[in-house]
Design brief:
elongated
């Protein structure tokens, strides 16, 4: 766009020349007779022609000046729109001062043709505003570059998200248990009549997760995730309890369409999806051997969601799983087939859930089933493992929710049922003629969650797992089953979880375990656990 000051000066010069020429022409016309034969007639015609050309130039300059004013007005409007669009980002980038200055400049709209000084002032203000806008853009660009440098970058350039929790637990136990910091069931004290107490702390329940968002395939969004903790054991070194070994929890790949999903990987049991709320027990879900079936198992499943009337949803899930039975690996480096895998087939599971929104939460009722065959070849016996399950989440009030699970099954120690016991032997396990049978069991848990405030919640849980004593008494003994056969395991807990910020949590929990061996007296363990975690 041309300089408005030059245009104004040219306009004034043209007006001055036009006036002088007009006076000269008038004088000439008075002194020269109107005769076509006069000697000065040619020069007069030339002067008239020049005047016409000068008028045309002046009209063109006026038109260009009008167009310039229109262009400047459009530029003001565009800059106003740009400022409005960039205002939120500019505020975030601490550029509010320059934005307010630009806004004041845009607000002044004096007529262009008032004077040369006014035009010059408007042009200067516009230049300042453009400069301010450029500075804001540069600042925002630097912020974007900084954000780009701090994001997680993958070799394949797909978007990735890092998450997890750094969690510290301090605990005080009264009574013996199978695991000091993560007790699953109570045990008798080391010496009769001895009250066993302990105190300790750990960070091995800290978790690290990574989620990757891949390309779209056949209309499905692809993604993958992996999650680790540090509860894989302890190195054989001094103070090895402080150096938890990294352990794979879950790792899965997903294809998600609008109403259908395909999931493959090591994941939680999709037919037993719930667990009690507890930050005292993340490495193993709370009450995992007291009615809460669980497992991180390789699996492939398909999920289909159906939208019903009145915001109701029906979800159907079906899949196959690695057929595990909770045997300890025979070798720390080489893998051999366990009884479930020796059957030559996977385990099968299915779950159907109905849900609808209630009190800004979802009311969900579900039923599920599980089946897997086990081949205990050393004893020449086949055992059918199965389970029927139901789970629920029921919003009773806006801040009060009831949830839980119940199961009835057989030979499902691999899922934590029957306190982790799958079969019982009827004699010496080293003899091929020794009989065995799958252990029947039933159990479950229920939780009442009270959201006291937006940041504070109170949870109470009761759980129980019962191995059927009728399958054991008169058939199996402790001596033939590598230790006491546990018939019942009860658990209860209460905890208070406080989240002063979304990325910070504090928790205090009391837990009680009451375990009943079939051929021995019951044992009790109480634990107080204080937790502090930072999520990222």
């Amino acid at each position: 766009m041309k300089n408005p000051e030059l245009r104004t000066g040219a306009l004034m010069a043209a007006v001055f020349v036009l006036c002088m020429c007009s006076l000269s022409l008038c004088g000439a016309q008075e002194s020269v007779p109107m005769a076509a034969s006069q000697p000065g007639d040619a020069s007069l015609r030339d002067m008239a022609s020049q005047l016409r050309e000068l008028r045309a130039v002046i009209e063109q300059m006026r038109s260009e000046n009008a167009q310039s004013r229109a262009e400047m007005q459009e530029l003001r409007e565009e800059l106003q729109q740009t400022r409005k669009a960039l205002a939120p980002l500019a505020v975030a980038a601490n550029a509010g001062a320059s934005s307010s200055t630009s806004s004041a400049t845009v607000g002044s709209t004096q007529p262009f043709a008032n004077s040369t000084g006014a035009l010059s002032s408007t042009s200067t203000d516009l230049a300042n505003r453009v400069q301010s806008l450029e500075e804001s853009t540069q600042l925002l660009g630097s912020k974007i570059d900084e954000q780009y440098q701090t994001k997680v970058e993958t070799a394949a350039k797909y978007r990735a998200r890092l998450s997890g929790i750094v969690l510290m637990n301090a605990f005080h136990n009264v009574g013996a248990s199978d695991n000091l910091d993560l007790p699953d069931y109570a045990q008798p004290p080391a010496a009769p009549g001895l009250a066993q107490t302990s105190f300790g702390a750990t960070l091995r329940q800290s978790e690290i997760g990574l989620e990757i968002f891949g390309p779209t395939l056949a209309g499905a969004k692809s993604s993958a995730n992996i999650q680790l903790d540090f509860a894989g054991g302890f190195p054989a070194t001094n103070n090895g309890v402080n150096f938890g070994i990294a352990r794979l929890q879950t790792a899965s790949l997903r294809l998600d369409w609008k109403n259908t999903s395909v999931v493959a990987g090591q994941d939680a049991l999709f037919f037993s999806p719930l667990s009690p709320t507890s930050f005292a027990s993340l490495a193993i879900p709370a009450f995992a051997y007291s009615g809460n079936l669980w497992g991180w198992t390789p699996q492939v499943r398909v999920e289909r969601r159906f939208d019903l009337a009145d915001q109701q949803t029906l979800t159907v899930q079906a899949g196959i799983l690695d057929n595990l039975d909770w045997e300890t690996p025979s070798n720390p480096f080489y893998r051999s087939a366990q009884a479930g895998e020796l059957s030559g087939q996977p385990a099968y599971a299915m779950r159907t859930a109905w849900s609808r929104p209630v009190f800004d939460h979802f009311l969900t009722i579900a039923a599920a089933g599980y089946y897997g065959r086990q081949n205990w070849t050393e004893w020449n016996r086949n055992v059918d493992a199965w389970a029927a399950l139901t789970d629920w989440q029921i919003p009773i009030l806006i801040r009060l929710t009831l949830s839980g699970e119940f199961y009835r099954g057989r030979a499902i120690g691999g899922l934590g049922g029957a306190v982790g016991q799958t079969i019982v032997f009827g004699g010496n396990p080293s003899y091929s003629t020794t009989g065995l049978r799958g252990l029947d069991s039933a159990g479950g848990w229920t939780q009442l969650k009270f959201q006291l405030t937006r940041k504070l919640e109170l949870n109470g849980v009761y759980s129980e797992d019962d191995a059927f004593a009728g399958d054991v008494r008169g058939y199996a003994t402790d001596a033939n089953n590598f230790g006491p056969i546990l018939g019942r395991n009860r658990g209860a807990l209460g905890n208070l979880v406080y989240r002063p910020r979304s990325d910070l949590l504090l928790s205090a929990e009391f837990r009680r375990l009451h375990t009943f061996p079939i051929y021995d007296s019951a044992s009790v363990t109480n634990q107080i656990n204080l937790a502090m975690g930072v999520l990222f």
